[in-house]
Write a structure and sequence with these properties.
With about 210 residues, the protein is of the alpha+beta class. About 40% of the residues lie in helices and about 15% in strands. The protein is built from 6 helices and 4 strands; from the N terminus they run ααααββαββα. The strands form 2 sheets. The chain has a two-stranded antiparallel ribbon. Strand 1 and strand 2 form a beta hairpin. Helix 5 (about 150-165) packs antiparallel against helix 6 (about 190-200). It is flat and about 90 Å long. The chain starts with about 25 loop residues before the first helix and ends in an 11-residue tail after the last helix.
């Protein structure tokens, strides 16, 4: 895919189907990396300014012979536009070879990409709403699937679980030791304030809470 360019059309196609097997912290760092990667691609694409990728690299190599073309990635549409320009130019010299059928076949060989495979099978069935049935002599389990960890609903559920488990604890310092004076759960209004805040930030320290 790197050699064929980044395909914008498949961005996020299967995000709801995938089961996130990493921790929230690693997932957040991964998203930041992907955003940076896409930002670089968009910047490279804008720098073409009407040129083909080959023209762009040629100018860069004339300015700096050590310029690394391997590290510069563009959108797939940029590569496809260059392909079309090359074919249109070469058709004037090889009309018998570069027929429409041949060009389409060549284009598909280079740029065809199958749709992303659904990962719904990795998402477990809901333990509260699923049931067993007999089908063709076999016992199978059916029912709605749980929300993937990457789903906003699943993330909201984790926020509720964490907030509902919090307690306000009052300590009294006695030298190096601390004595618990009181423990009480958050009030409904305090919980709601914290829930709203957590939905608008990636992390929150104990001090911020």
């Amino acid at each position: 895919n790197q050699k064929r360019g980044y395909n914008q059309q498949i961005k996020g196609q299967s995000e709801e189907d995938e089961s996130d097997k990493k921790s929230d912290e690693k997932s957040t760092e991964s998203k930041k990396t992907k955003e940076t990667y896409k930002d670089k691609i968009e910047k490279n694409s804008k720098e073409l300014n009407g040129k083909t990728i080959g023209e762009y690299f040629y100018e860069k190599l004339r300015q700096d012979s050590d310029f690394r073309t391997k590290d510069i990635i563009f959108y797939r549409i940029d590569y496809q536009n260059e392909f079309n320009q090359i074919i249109q130019t070469q058709k004037a010299f090889y009309p018998d070879v570069l027929t429409d059928e041949f060009v389409q076949r060549l284009f598909n060989i280079i740029y065809y990409q199958r749709p992303l495979k659904s990962q719904k099978g990795l998402v477990k069935l809901c333990p509260f709403a699923s049931k067993y049935i007999n089908k063709e002599g076999k016992t199978i389990k059916i029912g709605p699937r749980v929300a993937p960890k990457s789903s906003p609903l699943a993330q909201y559920k984790r926020i509720l679980e964490q907030v509902n488990s919090l307690e306000i604890t009052e300590y009294e310092k006695r030298g190096k030791r601390e004595k618990i004076l009181s423990e009480e759960p958050l009030t409904p209004s305090q919980r709601q304030i914290l829930i709203d805040a957590l939905q608008n930030c990636e992390k929150m320290t104990q001090k911020q809470i």
